[in-house]
Amino acid sequence: MRPTLRQRPPRTLVLVGLMGAGKTSIGRRLAARLGLPFVDADHEIERAAGCSIPEFFDRYGEPAFREGERRVIARLLDQPLQVLSTGGGAFMDAETRALVRQRAHSIWLRAELDLLVQRTARRGNRPLLKDADPHETLRKLMDLRHPYYAQADITVDSGDRPAEDTVDRVVEALQAYLDTDADSQPPETRPQPAAVES
Ligand SMILES: Nc1ncnc2c1ncn2[C@@H]1O[C@H](COP(=O)(O)OP(=O)(O)O)[C@@H](O)[C@H]1O
Ligand SMILES: O=C(O)C1=C[C@@H](OP(=O)(O)O)[C@@H](O)[C@H](O)C1
Ligand SMILES: [Mg+2]
């Protein structure tokens, strides 16, 4: 029997990590395992904009995409408990990180560079990887973004193994987190940090 959680998670589960880490595919399977709705922020942006992510980048540019991404994720974090897979750049935004911290549990799916390159080579749907050498681009993004992903509540290696095995690892890490972490209360009851005078 595959592991599942002993309790309903108190908050939405947000997956973060680089392109190809498996946020969309593992997120969908995790939701099915836990019996929760699944939503992918990129799919929601595509639905709202009526075009694909590459078309969005072509027509409106990356800054407009980031703005849309921030708004869509804020809206999705207002919805009832679900599994929410973000696009790789979403957690770089300070407002999004703060909102995720307040309202959700975050899970960083971490993977080796070569595996990310392999997994993203299969489809040409990632505008950031279409021009320059994808290996070099992902390496730079790794340097830039890993310190932010590392701020997630939970980290799970998304290695070269069957996806359901990675889901097992996510469930086990999440159970351990919910068992021990004082922050794992529903968002309404979580105490807010006191304002800091600057
Ligand atoms: N064990 C695995 N874990 C995650 N993704 C995998 C795995 N094996 C193959 N993949 C594939 O890697 C590709 C990229 O995954 P995706 O879920 O789109 O990543 P992300 O949303 O993080 O960019 C998909 O085609 C997925 O099916
Ligand atoms: O890392 C990024 O900046 C991006 C990741 C993509 O999502 P995935 O991480 O699901 O591929 C998508 O949001 C867009 O192409 C930009
Ligand atoms: Mg994705």
Automatic annotation (TrEMBL):
<feature type="binding site">
    <location>
        <position position="161"/>
    </location>
    <ligand>
        <name>ATP</name>
    </ligand>
</feature>
<dbReference type="GO" id="GO:0009073">
    <property type="term" value="P:aromatic amino acid family biosynthetic process"/>
</dbReference>
<feature type="binding site">
    <location>
        <position position="66"/>
    </location>
    <ligand>
        <name>substrate</name>
    </ligand>
</feature>
<keyword id="KW-0460">Magnesium</keyword>
<feature type="binding site">
    <location>
        <position position="145"/>
    </location>
    <ligand>
        <name>substrate</name>
    </ligand>
</feature>
<keyword id="KW-0547">Nucleotide-binding</keyword>
<dbReference type="InterPro" id="IPR000623">
    <property type="entry name" value="Shikimate_kinase/TSH1"/>
</dbReference>
<keyword id="KW-0028">Amino-acid biosynthesis</keyword>
<comment type="subunit">
    <text>Monomer.</text>
</comment>
<dbReference type="GO" id="GO:0008652">
    <property type="term" value="P:amino acid biosynthetic process"/>
</dbReference>
<dbReference type="InterPro" id="IPR027417">
    <property type="entry name" value="P-loop_NTPase"/>
</dbReference>
<dbReference type="GO" id="GO:0000287">
    <property type="term" value="F:magnesium ion binding"/>
</dbReference>
<dbReference type="InterPro" id="IPR023000">
    <property type="entry name" value="Shikimate_kinase_CS"/>
</dbReference>
<keyword id="KW-0057">Aromatic amino acid biosynthesis</keyword>
<comment type="pathway">
    <text>Metabolic intermediate biosynthesis; chorismate biosynthesis; chorismate from D-erythrose 4-phosphate and phosphoenolpyruvate: step 5/7.</text>
</comment>
<dbReference type="Pfam" id="PF01202">
    <property type="entry name" value="SKI"/>
</dbReference>
<dbReference type="GO" id="GO:0005524">
    <property type="term" value="F:ATP binding"/>
</dbReference>
<dbReference type="GO" id="GO:0004765">
    <property type="term" value="F:shikimate kinase activity"/>
</dbReference>
<keyword id="KW-0479">Metal-binding</keyword>
<feature type="region of interest" description="Disordered">
    <location>
        <begin position="177"/>
        <end position="198"/>
    </location>
</feature>
<comment type="function">
    <text>Catalyzes the specific phosphorylation of the 3-hydroxyl group of shikimic acid using ATP as a cosubstrate.</text>
</comment>
<feature type="binding site">
    <location>
        <position position="24"/>
    </location>
    <ligand>
        <name>Mg(2+)</name>
    </ligand>
</feature>
<feature type="binding site">
    <location>
        <position position="126"/>
    </location>
    <ligand>
        <name>ATP</name>
    </ligand>
</feature>
<feature type="binding site">
    <location>
        <begin position="20"/>
        <end position="25"/>
    </location>
    <ligand>
        <name>ATP</name>
    </ligand>
</feature>
<keyword id="KW-0808">Transferase</keyword>
<feature type="binding site">
    <location>
        <position position="42"/>
    </location>
    <ligand>
        <name>substrate</name>
    </ligand>
</feature>
<keyword id="KW-0963">Cytoplasm</keyword>
<dbReference type="GO" id="GO:0005829">
    <property type="term" value="C:cytosol"/>
</dbReference>
<feature type="binding site">
    <location>
        <position position="88"/>
    </location>
    <ligand>
        <name>substrate</name>
    </ligand>
</feature>
<dbReference type="InterPro" id="IPR031322">
    <property type="entry name" value="Shikimate/glucono_kinase"/>
</dbReference>
<protein>
    <recommendedName>
        <fullName>Shikimate kinase</fullName>
        <ecNumber>2.7.1.71</ecNumber>
    </recommendedName>
</protein>
<keyword id="KW-0067">ATP-binding</keyword>
<dbReference type="GO" id="GO:0009423">
    <property type="term" value="P:chorismate biosynthetic process"/>
</dbReference>
<comment type="similarity">
    <text>Belongs to the shikimate kinase family.</text>
</comment>
<keyword id="KW-0418">Kinase</keyword>
